[in-house]
Specification:
By secondary structure, this protein is α/β, with parallel strands linked by helices. The chain has two domains: 2-58; 69-255 and 264-359, 3-Layer(aba) Sandwich (Rossmann fold). It has helices at residues 2-10, 33-58, 148-151, 178-191, 209-223, 228-233, 248-259, 265-269, 275-287, 312-315, 343-359; strands spanning 102-107, 114-119, 155-161, 201-207, 234-240, 292-298, 322-327.
Length: 364
């Protein structure tokens, strides 16, 4: 895989522009300025396109989610019904191919008792991360609304979206890390008109980096006196292939992005044993003893990789109150299910039922 990095850093030398290691241009000094500038711009485009191909080949964790930008939706529908839906699926959202940013209501029963919040990972999407294919019917959080053992307990479902597209150009999110994304989630919960004062118990389900974002939100709530009422409402946290100790693949991705001047703080946070993941783990260890923690890890290797993206040693935290389970999936498919008969979906659904039974036993 390291040959990709070398190819990215040298791809432009053949057409005579400065390389990423600072070597001088091969253009002749007497080359007209206009021609030189045109070649330089063309070289940048070639270099970016080449690097994107490399990243897609060796870090395919959601590159299909790199288009457009959805509208932020955080308000509830007035007059909840049993089938209330807040954010339309991508095919129904005019002018948008991405799920919404921020906290979006997916489903609410008339009298909610539990809030499930779905948090996507790196380069993910609040809709597509949880969908296998492009059909709106593959968005499996809505399948849970048909499960009597789950919805009979007053479960409301929301998604949280944040901009973690590592192949886009510079923006205000370039310097944002897991801490900032986590605090954004906490702020959304604290200001949500349908969650903030509801008194519901909170369950988070995070895929990959999304699990770290959820952990950071919980830690922030515990440590902020203004949000301790929210912290007390956190009841369970689900982690799908979350790199609690970081991932070696994140280091390679960081190298590729720096090769085209697309450095992202949150990618560095994901590197194995980074300061960010160590701090989150240390804090979470002391603050999470009362939580119901469920960690699921991948067992299949993705195409173009020789090893797991997040291995078991990083996907579990070895906590006393942690339930651990393997899934027959790779890093990308661990959060996408083919149908309600998919064994991975059944594992997750049954685990949710067990959590809900502990939180709120079904009345006879």
């Amino acid at each position: 895989m390291l040959q990709f990095v070398h190819r990215c850093s040298t791809a432009v030398t053949a057409i005579g522009v400065s390389t990423t290691d600072g070597s001088r241009s091969l253009l002749m000094p007497h080359c007209p300025v206009g021609v030189r500038e045109a070649l330089r711009k063309r070289a940048c485009m070639v270099r970016l396109a080449h690097t994107e191909v490399c990243i897609r080949r060796c870090m395919d964790v959601g590159c299909g989610h790199l288009r457009g930008r959805g509208k932020v939706t955080s308000r509830p529908n007035n007059g909840y019904t049993v089938s209330a839906v807040e954010a339309p699926p991508p095919s129904e959202a005019a002018g948008s191919t991405r799920g919404a940013l921020g906290l979006s209501l997916v489903y609410s029963p008339p009298d909610p008792k539990i809030d499930i919040i779905m948090v996507h990972g790196l380069a993910g999407d609040s809709r597509k991360t949880w969908s296998k294919g492009h059909s709106p019917s593959s968005f499996w959080p809505l399948w849970l609304t048909k499960e009597p053992a789950i919805m009979g307990r007053g479960v409301r479902i929301s998604t949280f979206g944040y901009d973690s597209r590592y192949l886009k150009g510079s923006s205000g999110t370039d310097c944002m890390g897991i801490h900032q994304f986590g605090m954004s989630l906490l702020t959304e919960i604290a200001t949500s008109p349908y969650i903030r004062g509801a008194g519901t118990r909170i369950i988070t389900i995070g895929h990959s980096m999304g699990g770290l974002v959820a952990k950071r939100a919980f830690i922030g709530a515990v440590r902020d006196p203004e949000h301790r009422d929210i912290a007390r409402r956190f009841a369970s946290m689900y982690f799908l292939a979350t790199p609690h100790r970081g991932a070696d693949s994140a280091r390679l991705l960081g190298i590729l992005l720096r090769a085209v001047a697309l450095d992202k703080a949150y990618v560095g946070d994901l590197e194995r044993n980074s300061a960010a993941v160590r701090t989150i783990n240390d804090d979470f260890f002391w603050l999470s003893s009362r939580l119901d923690i469920r960690s699921f890890y991948e067992t299949e290797i993705m195409s173009h990789f020789r090893s797991l993206i997040v291995d078991k040693s990083s996907a579990i935290m070895d906590l006393v109150n942690e339930f651990e389970a393997p899934m027959s999936a790779d890093h990308r498919s661990i959060c996408k299910f083919a149908s309600t008969h998919d064994n991975n979906y059944r594992i997750l659904r049954n685990s949710l039922v067990a959590t809900l039974e502990n939180l709120m036993p079904m009345r006879p």
